[in-house]
């Protein structure tokens, strides 16, 4: 496992940035260990709800975790607003960094992650494979 710290800048889309991080670092399997920072927009899909809810305010990321494969991510996040209320759910595209987001990624060079249809759940799920051996 290799640790890879990452800092996102104001205006970046959090999910897009995480999904595009794999290519420059040559990763095939990534865990998002934790993330903190601030957002101006959070788009979260709550459990059992089909479409994300958009929150617009000065938001603080309390938790951020998940997996990233070359063909997509599965991320969960909790955020608090100015009144201290906490919301959490699946991270959708459109979460916009307000001042900064600091993330710790764990790169797993011996594995390959992919998101594929799972006939049992009916959803795109994480499939884990061993990486090809290097000569």
From TrEMBL:
Domain of life from the UniProt record: Bacteria
Protein name (Swiss-Prot/TrEMBL): PPC domain-containing protein
Xref: InterPro entries: PPC_dom
Naturally occurring in which organism (per UniProt): Paraburkholderia phymatum (strain DSM 17167 / CIP 108236 / LMG 21445 / STM815) (Burkholderia phymatum)
Pfam families reported in the protein's UniProt record: PCC
Domain PPC: 1-129
């Amino acid at each position: 496992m290799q640790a890879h710290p990452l800092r996102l800048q104001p205006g970046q889309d959090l999910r897009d940035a995480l999904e595009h991080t794999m290519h420059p670092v040559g990763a095939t399997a990534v865990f998002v260990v934790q993330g903190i920072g601030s957002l101006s927009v959070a788009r979260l899909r709550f459990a059992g709800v089909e479409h994300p809810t958009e929150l617009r305010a000065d938001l603080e990321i309390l938790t951020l975790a998940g997996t990233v494969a070359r063909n997509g991510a599965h991320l969960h996040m909790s955020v608090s607003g100015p009144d201290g209320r906490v919301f959490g759910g699946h991270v959708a595209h459109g979460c916009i960094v307000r001042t900064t987001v600091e993330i710790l990624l764990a790169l797993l060079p011996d594995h390959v992650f992919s998101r594929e249809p799972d006939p049992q759940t009916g959803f795109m799920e994480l499939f884990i494979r061993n990486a090809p051996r290097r000569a």
